[in-house]
Amino acid sequence: MAANQKERKKCDGDIQTQEQKISKLKDQTLQAKTNEVYRAFQNEIEFCQKEIRKCEDRILELMTESEPLDRNVKTAEVALKTEKAQVEAEKQQARERTAIDQKASADLLKERGEIVAGITPAVYQRYTRVCKMRRGIGVAEALDGRCNACNMTMRLQFFQELRKGDQVMACESCLRILYYNPPQSVDDVAGARAVQG
Predict the structure, then answer these.
(1) I need a labelling partner for 167 at 20 to 30 A (CA). Which of 64, 100, 113, 182 fits?
(2) Cβ distance 40 to 28 under 8 Å?
(3) pLDDT digits over 61-114, tens only?
């Protein structure tokens, strides 16, 4: 579209230049003393008029080309406006999601602070040291006599002591702090539902 308008302006400028030439040639024609000089000026004027017609024809072509371009530009502007609205809506959703995530993060940090306050400093230091060594995972579940994180089998005596739950114990292989979650029988789950109901 911009190139089209630029070329039209150039053609308008060329037409003005040719018209100025014709005006000068007409003045010079009046001063011609021989027929040959007069005819030469007339030929020059005709050439300038042909150039003007060429420029006018090109302007008409450009105007014809610009109509679909105008429609395309207007369509693109409408599409852009729609897309901008959609992007703004997505930005708003992202802001809302970020606010929710930040609140959840703050809640979790608060809960974590309460948990840290409830454990001894030595256990917490042990936990943070293991977290640094094990890519942020410092606790693992003991499941079926194995560490759920490294899948190493525990000694039977060690597993029995862990099941008692009276001391903080770590996996002998990966050093993660272990916890034991006793399995619930179907009767226990049914009984818990009956109590809740």
Answers:
(1) 113
(2) no
(3) 878 877 777 777 788 888 889 999 999 999 999 999 999 999 999 999 999 888
Contact 41, 25 (CB under 8 A): yes
Q: What is the CA radius of gyration of the chain?
A: 44
Residue 196 amino acid letter: Q
Tokens of 167: 């001391």
Stretch (H or E) spanning 143? strand 139-143
| Contact (CB, 8 A) for 140 and 180 | no
Residue 19 tokens, joined: 């018209």
Type of residue at 30? L
Q: Does residue 41 have a pLDDT over 90?
A: no
DSSP assignment of 133-156: HTTT--EEEEETTEETTT-PBPPH
Q: In what order do the strands lie in the sheet with 177-180?
A: 146-147, 139-143, 177-180, 169-170
Amino acid letter, residue 28 = Q
